[in-house]
Write a structure and sequence with these properties.
Layout: E1 50-52, E2 56-61, E3 69-74, E4 82-87, E5 95-107, E6 115-122, E7 133-135, E8 139-141, E9 148-155, E10 166-171, E11 180-191
Antiparallel strand pairs: 1-4, 2-3, 3-11, 4-10, 5-9, 5-11, 6-7, 6-8, 6-10
Length: 193
């Protein structure tokens, strides 16, 4: 259980929690919330994306479009792959479409460099890299910081179990001593067949 907002130092105690069933809930008409949440980053409080590869992810004001917000993935000051992840319930035999916009911020030393971004859907599969990585090509984010639109359809096959399933994108380290920083927006992942 998560209690928000909690910005105090120390701890909190909860004496009593009561869960009440919604008498108006209808499973057949209920909305499905199992997909990407807040993919457009417009809710600046809810960040359901998480990093790996020692990167950090924050929601920031878009420097290119006033009033818009984006996910900023900031790499560390070492050679590391910068990941942005979101849990997603892939199913065997289903076809999905992923789309997003992304732009390069530069490397962890502040240099303007092209960033190689790799959409990498993850689910357990013996034929996949390291048993789970399904790379969907590489898109180059130019060093000038312009937005690049990406879209691709793919079909999930060979999934062995329904664990560790997620949307993922990562950026290759730009050099032997730096990692990549980039922004993403309008992230959509949907089952289309």
């Amino acid at each position: 259980i998560r209690v928000d907002p909690f910005d105090a130092i120390g701890y909190a105690e909860i004496d009593y929690i009561r869960l009440v069933e919604n008498p108006d809930y209808d499973e057949e008409t209920a909305e499905d919330f199992s997909g990407i949440v807040n993919g457009d980053a417009q809710n600046t409080i809810i960040n359901t994306f998480y990093p790996s590869g020692n990167a950090t992810i924050t929601i920031e004001a878009d420097e290119t479009e006033p009033g818009n917000y984006v996910y900023r993935v900031t790499g560390t000051n070492s050679k590391a792959w910068s990941y942005i992840n979101h849990d997603y319930p892939f199913e065997n035999g289903k076809t999905y479409k992923v789309s997003f916009r992304a732009r390069a911020i530069g490397d962890s030393d502040g240099n303007e460099v092209d960033i190689r971004l790799k959409p990498n859907m993850q689910y357990p599969d013996d034929s996949a890299t390291e048993g789970k990585h399904h790379e969907l090509g590489t898109t180059v984010l130019p060093s000038d910081g312009s937005w690049v639109y990406y879209e691709k359809e793919f079909t999930v096959t060979g999934m062995m179990k329904e664990t560790n399933r997620k949307f993922s994108c990562y950026a290759d380290p730009p050099s032997d001593t730096t990692s990549a920083s980039f922004e993403m927006d309008d992230i959509v992942l949907e089952c289309i067949a």
